[in-house]
Amino acid sequence: MSPPTILALDLEGTLISNAMSCFPRPGLHAFLDFSAAHFPRVVLFTAVSEHRVRPILDVLAAEAAIPGWARGIEIIGWAGEVKDLGFIPRATVAGTLLVDDLESYVHPDQRAQWVPIEPFVQPYPDTDLELVRVTEALRDRLRSAG
Question: N or C, which terminus of the chain has less Cβ within 10 Å?
Fold first, then answer.
């Protein structure tokens, strides 16, 4: 089995609070650096429009909450009831992992590609360690596939 080459990341409730308040999840910068170092392609897979996402990324980068490279991250939009990894251009389902907080958005036939994360919700605690946990889950996935 080949290791996954694409990491698709949800935005709201996964990396940040939501598109209105935009509080970064603790450990976001380190998580994105890990992602870029271990996956040849990292994309945002979000229902938030690119027109709205780009200014959010600019603010997060200015606050050093995300690495500078992440301002230009590829954004994959989607429509429908679930996030089908087939929406990602030049991707295979088997070669892609999805980090998302909402199981209901995961395509039923693609659950094996899902890396769950607990939702980042109010009061948005500074003690949240979900990105650290997910980093280790991703390391395990990469080791088992490599």
Answer: N
- For 50, phi then psi, to 5°, come to -60, -35
For residue range 83-142, what is the model confidence (pLDDT) as tens digits?
999 999 999 999 999 999 999 999 999 999 999 999 999 999 999 999 999 999 999 999
Q: What are phi and psi of 117, to 5 degrees?
A: -140, 140
CA 19 to chain centre: 14
Quick one: 53 exposed, middle or buried, by C-beta within 10 A (0-12, 13-18, 19+)? middle
- Kindly write down the DSSP assignment for every residue of 79-90, as one continuous string: -SSSB-GGGSTT
Q: Is the peptide bond before 123 cis (omega within 30 degrees of 0)?
A: yes
Find the DSSP H helices in the chain.
28-38, 50-62, 130-145
Q: What are phi and psi of 40, to 5 degrees?
A: -60, -25
Cα separation, 23 vs 74, whole angstroms: 21
The structural domains of the chain, ordered by start, are 6-145 (3.40.50.1000)
